[in-house]
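Onboarding guide, step 5: your first structure request.
Type a short instruction followed by the sequence, for example:

Predict the 3D structure of this protein.
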Amino acid sequence: EREPVGFFDRIHIDAYYNETRYDGDDQNASKQATVGNRIDAAFANSINDPNAELTGAFTDGDRVLTGGRMFGAVGGTSTALLRTGIDVRYEEQRILETFTLDPNPTMQSPINLQPDSTLIDAGFFAEVELAMTSYWTTTVGARVDFVHTDAFGAADGAQTIVGDLGRSDTLSAYYLANRLRLNDFWAVNFGYG
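The system replies with structure tokens like these:
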């Protein structure tokens, strides 16, 4: 049997980390017919050269997502269960796009069209799960998040960002969720939030 931890019957802590690398290009013939035409048109308009032709488009990027959650629980699933806690999430993304155009040699260097970006989200949540019957549970909850996002020019200096792109917001949400257990294998979930 578990020993209570302060006010809570039990404490739950988890953390996660994920890093995803991705790269791509337009060198496959199937991509050149669709992607290449759209990029050709965009560059021809932006550099005022209708004869500019895309000879290569390459993408290299990575995304990091990490965070954790800690909550305490009081009660049991057979009657009423209160869960309250905090969570935090950090995310960053970097994309470097390189285009080569002909006959414009000045476009041969990397052009970073998307700035590096970050997100920090710290939140507080509380929810109550009620056993309405032996096969129906209802959960009502709410949360408040403090979110900050920012974007920065590329490390290679290829992009110029005008103005402050940092933003901070306070977000709130509430929800009501229901779970009907139809049998040992099937259940229906429905709710509002």
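Each response can be followed by summary notes, for example: The radius of gyration is 25 Å.
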